[in-house]
Design a protein that fits this description.
mainly alpha; two-stranded antiparallel ribbon; two-stranded antiparallel sheet
């Protein structure tokens, strides 16, 4: 007779699950409040969500580095902590935008905030585990919530965007599941540290190498969908166009951080084992992505679609750092998104400053360049702020994204990829053109006439969030050294 297995609560180390449980409990609390008292003002749910995110942030800060928990499926290393902090910081910056306008009615639904918290919990599970099954559960939890958040915008192109994102997400999930199945068939484990131990010293065997090739290609395809890498990037502009402007900005940062962390763990393991062609595959994809996305951004007529292609290019830029598989390269990934987060979310949010019920300037697009013509004469401060965001995204010193680009380029040079750093520099020069194009429209063109439905939104929540984004974009130069030191320490303390 088999003896029962006793599991003590202390051995589970439930503290590793605390941040995710806080987010899930928060979402359930919001749903229960709505169940007992419906039609409460959305400001209650906004404040409650921000409170839950603050508690979650504090819980994440209190985690110890390099611990495992819950039957060893949770991995709390420096990478897990720093990525969760970035996800929560971006979320706290996004949620107050729910107070800015009555037009975006999805923010009046308590379900919006509950789904938002469930989505965050999914992303946290993704980054705080090296178990391929738990990563998949987190990925699907976050994705299913995000599909619904997009559809809640309740416009015809929002439904289209949600369906496209769902279809592409389902395809990516299929690739991920098949890739994970290959890894399991090869090693008998879905824990990356055990997979690495099994494959150690066997990667030169012909059969093993073929299986690794098949599995890694399938996994790479899955993450190429999630990160909008070429040639799996075509859904991104349409989905961003259909989502509300702020949610599009949020999507350009948080899901990509989670996907990059998982890619860092999986492909970093392969590169550490000496499978060099994985690194080559990532670099080729990264170069193609940043180059082609920049070329496509040059010919866009809509500012939101231009920013969408811009986000694809930035994702390719950062993906190249993962191929380096160095502590400095991995530090560059988090530094880049810590700086890019404020700038890009601020740029997307600035699309809200001028709104119209009808498409005045273009029969298809909501945010054509013509809408921003002469903005310096209509709203001088708005034009200056948008120009600051554009200059930062273009990598003009001393604004924030410049330091992220320089750091990743120096990591590439240190790793012996001088040509890659040159390609990154050339792509930054190409990108400067389409960012400056918007500045030219705002400062050098005359304002266009409209039918009277165009109005300008200067609500306090909107201006506060934009103000925080501008402050972070401009003042980041003064905090670069402690930020780099902290991220470098956390990444180097990771034993994945």
């Amino acid at each position: 007779m088999l003896e029962p297995i006793s599991v003590s609560l202390a051995s589970l180390n439930m503290a590793t699950l605390a941040p995710m449980l806080i987010a899930i409990a928060g979402g359930l609390i919001i749903l229960i409040i709505d169940l007992f008292k419906s039609n409460l003002h959305k400001s209650l749910y906004v404040m409650l969500t921000i409170l839950i995110l603050f508690v979650d942030f504090g819980s994440t800060l209190g985690l110890s580095v390099n611990e495992r928990g819950f039957f060893d499926v949770m991995l709390i290393d420096g990478i897990a902590i720093i990525s969760q902090l970035l996800i929560l910081a971006a979320s706290m910056l996004f949620i107050p935008l729910a107070l800015t306008s009555k037009r975006f009615h999805e923010y009046s639904y308590p379900e919006f905030f509950a789904l938002f918290l469930f989505m965050i919990a999914g992303f946290q599970f993704m980054v705080a585990s090296d178990n391929l099954i738990l990563i998949f559960v987190g990925l699907e939890t976050a994705s299913l919530s995000l599909y619904t958040l997009i559809a809640l915008h309740n416009r015809s192109n929002s439904y289209e965007a949600a369906v496209k994102y769902f279809t592409m997400g389902a395809l990516a999930a299929g690739f991920y599941a098949m890739g994970s199945a290959v890894v399991y068939a090869l090693t008998g484990s879905v824990e990356l540290y055990q997979v690495s131990n099994v494959l150690q010293g066997r990667v030169d065997e012909a059969g093993i190498m073929i299986a690794i090739l098949g599995g890694s290609v399938l996994l790479m395809a899955a993450f190429a969908f999630k990160l909008s890498l070429f040639p799996f990037h075509t859904w991104t502009p349409d989905v961003y166009e259909g989502a509300s402007a702020a949610l599009a900005g949020y999507m350009s940062v948080v899901p990509k951080i989670a996907a990059l962390v998982v890619a860092m763990r999986i492909f970093g393991m392969y590169i550490d084992l000496g499978v060099d062609w994985v690194s080559t595959m990532i670099i080729v994809l990264a170069v193609l992505t940043m180059t082609l996305a920049n070329v496509m951004a040059l010919v866009q007529e809509d500012v939101k679609r231009m920013l969408a292609y811009s986000s694809i290019s930035h994702a390719g830029f950062v993906m190249a750092a993962i191929a380096l598989d160095t502590t400095k390269g991995n530090t560059g990934v988090f530094l880049y998104y810590a700086l890019f987060m404020f700038t890009n979310l601020g740029a997307f949010t600035m699309l809200w400053i001028s709104r119209h019920k009808n498409r005045v300037y273009h029969e298809r697009y909501d945010h054509p360049y013509e809408k921003f013509a002469g903005l310096i004469k209509i709203m001088p401060m708005g034009a200056v702020l948008m120009a600051l965001f554009m200059l930062s995204l273009a990598g003009v010193p001393p604004f924030s994204v410049f330091w992220g680009k320089i750091y990743i380029m120096s990591a590439a040079v240190d790793a012996g990829y001088v040509w890659l750093a040159i390609v990154m520099g050339l792509n930054s020069a190409i990108a400067a053109y389409y960012y400056l194009k918007l500045i030219v429209y705002m400062f050098l063109h005359d304002p266009r006439e409209n039918d009277g439905t165009l109005y300008y939104n200067l609500s306090k929540p909107l201006m506060t969030i934009i103000g925080i984004a501008v402050a972070a974009t401009v003042a980041s130069v003064f905090f670069m050294q402690p930020l780099v030191s902290y991220i470098y320490y956390m990444v180097s303390a990771s034993g994945y």
